[in-house]
Design brief:
Length: about 475
């Protein structure tokens, strides 16, 4: 039978099992028993031997599944899970800033297919995209009525830009005057240009952040460009350089491009790479490195995320860390357990810094104080302005669903992740269905439940520090139908 020896499990192959059975027959039944292959008893012995050998091979597989160097597939996943080192899943190449240009009010359905016409790689939208002047990165306006001595106005965000035509007005004169009015404020997040061939005033975001525009009478939008989230159809490193995804497959009227290259996806981590990463992570433990401190801290019960930042300079760094010190930023877990892990892994004579002192003992019973940083919660208020789509049914509890979607998405943000209002769109639309228009604004508030400042709403990215995380409550989320 299979044996568990000091060198591991030793199993038998089918010929060895046959020999063992024959020896047993001869010892216990008849020393002259015949087990020839062309006889029934011999054939039965071979069949039994195959089954016994298969059983021992299954036993070997079970033992190997617990061995990091031999485990494969789900068994290797189980080993990694016990060490809090999950396998890297396959991801898709993506961009959150694919440009789509159409007329104001156009709706691009979820699942719309795009293509790189050179490589024929395909991509698709994952949520409904609304083409709207209230959330665009580029818009073209033309003059519908050229009137003398008349006030023309373009509103960008909360600011109005005006020009009064002269007594012999032309369309080019009016759009040139409006451009001059915009230029006079020296905007940094958008720019105005002229398309003199078509006599258009063109307003374009300079940092790919959407803005809202509107105009008074006598003007109309001609082409509106919005951004949307697009990912590759297949997982893996699907390369999409800037301005390469330019063909619409299922919506030919839309003009599309990607001003910046896609973020590359990856294949599912192979057994070989995963096994090596587990070994490397384990080997760093207790070696007084940034990786060792971070790995050991991450393994503490209850820790959600741990991040170690060191200052190896001889001067105070830009974030105020002392020379030759390190900061351990930890979310979750008990202070005492974390302090023990940091003390065990940290280099001798190197200072720990942070906002929370933890007194712990070394292996000799001596009291030691280490410092860790507990992340600061940045309280956020959100304003969601939406317009219902006339051809779809808005849920009865639609506004409650919007609030919950905003909170749920915020809860997924990790330590140090900036708040990007436009990234909430897909979650909201997937929750309540199609909307004709949608704007998400955010601001930081001092305490949960505080009344937001009406003049402090922003649709641009709200930076979050390395030791901070965004947080909100349903009370701090306001929804408004417009």
């Amino acid at each position: 039978m299979a044996e568990l020896t000091s060198e591991g499990l030793v199993i038998r192959r089918q010929p060895e099992v046959v020999d063992s059975l024959v020896e047993s027959y001869q010892e216990l039944v008849n020393p002259n028993i015949s087990v020839r292959d062309d006889e029934g008893f011999g054939q039965q012995t071979n069949i039994m031997a195959l089954q016994f050998a298969a059983l021992e091979e299954a036993l070997e597989a079970v033992v190997n599944s617990q061995n990091l160097l031999k485990a494969e597939g789900s068994s290797l996943d189980d080993i990694g899970a016990t060490k809090l080192i999950p396998r890297q899943a396959a991801t898709k190449s993506f961009t959150a800033a694919q440009w789509f240009t159409e007329q104001n009010g156009f709706i691009i359905p979820s699942g719309t297919v795009l293509e790189n016409p050179v490589t024929l790689d395909r991509f698709n939208t994952t949520a409904i995209i609304n083409v709207s002047t209230t959330e665009s990165v580029r818009v073209e306006y033309s003059i519908t009525d050229v009137l003398d001595t008349t006030l023309y106005q373009v509103n960008i965000g909360d600011t109005g830009y005006t020009y009064t035509s002269d007594a012999d007005a032309t369309a080019l004169e009016i759009i040139t005057g409006l451009k001059a009015s915009i230029d006079a404020t020296s905007p940094t997040t958008f720019a105005a240009t002229l398309d003199t061939d078509n006599t258009y005033l063109v307003i374009t975001s300079t940092d790919n952040t959407p803005f809202s525009t509107s105009v008074v009478a006598y003007m109309i939008s001609q082409g509106v460009t919005v951004i949307g989230y697009v990912e590759s159809v297949v997982s893996g490193s699907v390369n999409a350089p800037s301005n390469s995804v330019t063909r619409m497959v299922t919506s030919s009227s839309v003009i599309t491009t990607n001003p910046i290259a896609y973020t590359l996806g990856r294949e599912k981590e192979t057994d070989e790479a995963y096994r090596l990463r587990i070994q490397t992570t384990q080997s760093s433990s207790g070696k007084a490195t940034v990786e060792a401190i971070q790995d050991d801290t991450s393994l503490v019960d209850g820790v959600i995320i741990a991040k170690v930042i060191d200052n190896d300079l001889s001067t105070v760094d830009g974030d105020g860390r002392n020379p030759h010190s390190f900061e351990t930023i930890v979310q979750g877990g008990l202070d005492a357990d974390i302090g023990k892990a940091v003390l065990t892994a940290k280099p001798a004579g190197i200072e720990s810094v942070g906002n929370t002192p933890v007194v712990t003992e070394d292996k000799y019973g001596n009291a030691k104080t280490v410092y860790i940083t507990r992340p600061t919660s940045i309280n956020l208020a959100f304003l969601v302005e939406y317009t219902k789509h006339g051809e779809t049914t808005f849920p009865i509890d639609g506004e409650d669903l919007i609030k919950q979607a905003v909170k749920d998405y915020t809860d997924t943000l990790i330590l140090g992740q900036d708040i990007t209002p436009v990234s909430y769109y897909g979650t909201i639309i997937n929750t309540v269905g199609a909307l004709a228009a949608l704007t998400v604004s955010v601001q930081q508030i001092a305490t949960q439940g505080d009344a937001p400042d009406g003049g402090s709403w922003q649709t641009t990215v709200l930076p979050i520090g390395e030791s901070e995380f965004g947080s909100t409550t349903l009370v701090d989320i306001t929804t408004t139908e417009v």
